[in-house]
Amino acid sequence: MTHRFNTLALHGGIHTDDTGSRGVPVHRTSAYLFKNTEHAANLFALKELGNIYTRLQNPTQDVLEQRVAALDNGAAALALSSGTAAIFYTIINVCGHGDEVVSTANLYGGTFTMFQNMLPEMGIQVKFVHPDRGEDVESAITDKTRLIFTEAIGNPSLDVVDMRRLSAIAEKHNLPLAVDATFTTPYLFRPIDHGAHIVIHSLTKWMGGHGTALGGIVVDSGTFDWSDPKFRLYNEPDPSYHDLRYAHDLGDLTPIAFILRMRVGPLRNLGACISPDNAWMILQGIETLSLRMDAHCRNALAVAKFLRDHDQVSWVRYPGLETDPSHPLAKELFEKGFGGMVVFGTRAGREGGQRFIDNLKLVSHLANVGDAKTLAIHPASTTHSQLTDEELSDAGVTGDMIRLSIGFEDIDDILEDLDQALRC
Ligand SMILES: *Cc1c(COP(=O)(O)O)cnc(C)c1O
Fold first, then answer.
1. Which of 138, 237, 287, 398 has the highest CB neighbour count under 10 A?
2. Looking at the 3D structure of the chain, how many domains does it have?
3. What phi and psi, each to the nearest 5 degrees, are found at residue 193?
4. Are the CB atoms for 352 and 371 separated by under 8 Å?
5. 216 CB near ligand 1 (under 6 Å)
6. Same-domain check for residues 273 and 296
7. Are residues 188 and 166 in the same domain?
8. CA distances from residue 216 to 66, 80, 184, 314 in whole angstroms, order as listed
9. Contact between residue 368 and residue 211 where contact means Cβ atoms under 8 Å apart
10. Is 164 in contact with 174 (CB distance < 8 Å)?
11. C-beta separation of 51 from 32 below 8 A
C-alpha cells in the first residue's frame, strides 16, 4: 500500500521492534553482531543486506533513507554527513579521471568551489553553463561527459531551471541528471517525477528545518541504466569490492546499482557517514515538513511583496512573484509554493546592504538557510568578499544583494524588523 506525502513524512521507513517504541530509536552503536561466519560472509559479499558497522549502515540512518526515498518517489537513498559530501560522492560515484560534468553555473557557493577548484585536481572537469543567459546545456556535452548537474532553484538569483528540457537532453545523450533540490524539498518539487535520476538534499536546511543538525542525502530514482560501457565504474570489475561489475552482477538490485556503489565505494572508503543522532534529529524535522514549508512559502511571499513595494528597495527576486523571470517555470514545476528564499537590493547599494544587515534586530545574521528562524546575509561582504565588483557580477552577485531565508516568526514581526533596518 502506498501512502500519501504527509503519511510518509510521519511513518516512512519505520519498522517497529520488540520494544514497541513509537518514536524512532537512536541506535548509538559502532558495530553489529554477526549471527555466524556465513552470515558475516554474506553481508560482506552483498548476498544479504544488513548491518555491519555504522560507517556503512545504521538502523536510524536506514529509517531516514527509506523515508526520504519515499518522499522523493525514489527507489533507494544514502544519507551522509552533509549536503557537501552528498554532492561530492555523487560526482565521484559516476566520474573518474578524464571524465567531465556539465553543470548549470548558478550554484551554492561551496558546490561552485568544489566544481571549480577541487574536482579538476582529481582530473574531473566541470563545464559551467548559464541557462539564465540563454546558453544551452547541450552545447557543453562532449564524449567525455558522464553527468549533468543542476540545482532546482539556483544561487544566488533564485532562477528556476527548466527541468523538462534538462531531462530531455539527459535522455538523448544517455546521461544521468543529478539535481540538488535543497531549496525546494520533496514537498514543493520532486525532480524524479520530471525525469531526474539522482536527487540530492542538504538535510541541514529545510528538511531538518531547525538549524541544529548537519546532514545530506542522495536519492536514486532506480531508473538509470548504467550498462553503457562509457560508465567505466559500473562496467569494469571493482578491485576494491570482489571485482563486482555494478551494472551486471547485482541481480534484483541492479536498478539501484548507483546507490549501492556509493555505499560500498565512497562511503565505505572515504567515510562521510551521518551520525545516528543527526539522522534522528532530521527525522523529527521531516515529520512536520509540509507544515513548515507552507509557513516558509507564505511568509516568503509576503516578504517579497513587501520589499517589492518598499521605497528603499531597488529590486527583489522571488520565484513566487508574478513579475519574476522565473515565475512561469516555477509555477509549472512547483505545485505548493515557491520556497523560503528571497533576495533583494537596497537603493543605497553595497554600503546600504551592509548597513541594513547591521541594523537587523530580530533577523539573524549568519551563513545558513532553511532554519525555522529568519536569516540574512550580505554575500558581497561575506561569502563573496574576496571578489571584485566585476567578478561579483559574473557570479551573479551584485554588491547590493541581500539574501534572506524567511522563517515562520509572525509575519508582522519580520516585516517590522526589515522595515526599520531599511530606514536606518
Ligand atoms: C547548504 C547547501 C549545500 C551544502 O550542504 P551542507 O549540509 O552545508 O554541506 C548544498 N547545496 C545547497 C543548495 C545548499 O543550500
1. 398
2. 2
3. -65, -15
4. no
5. yes
6. no
7. yes
8. 14, 5, 14, 36
9. yes
10. no
11. yes
Q: Which sign does the torsion angle of CA 276, 15, 372, 184 carry?
A: positive
Out of 90, 151, 205, 210, give the residue to mutate to test ligand 1, the one with the largest number of ligand atoms within 8 Å of its CB: 205
Cβ(383) – ligand 1 distance below 6 Å: no
- What are 25-84's pLDDT values in tens digits? 999 999 999 999 999 999 887 788 889 999 999 999 999 999 999 999 999 999 999 999
Q: Domain of 367: which CATH number?
A: 3.90.1150.10
Question: Are 230 and 355 members of one domain?
Answer: no
Q: Are residues 276 and 306 both part of a single domain?
A: no
User: What distance in Å separates the CA atoms of residue 282 and residue 202, rounded to the nearest whole number?
Assistant: 11
pLDDT at 44: 82
- Please tell me the pTM assigned to this model: 0.96
What pLDDT is recorded for position 126? 97
Answer whether 109 contacts ligand 1 (Cβ < 6 A).
Answer: no
Same domain, 267 and 327: no
Kindly report the CATH number assigned to the domain that includes residue 21: 3.40.640.10
CB 319 within 8 A of CB 339: yes
Question: Ligand 1 mean position to 83 CA, how many Å?
Answer: 5
State the amino acid at position 327 in one-letter form.
Answer: H
Q: What is the pLDDT of residues 279-294, one digit of tens each?
A: 999 999 999 999 999 9
Q: At 244, phi and psi to the nearest 5?
A: -65, 135
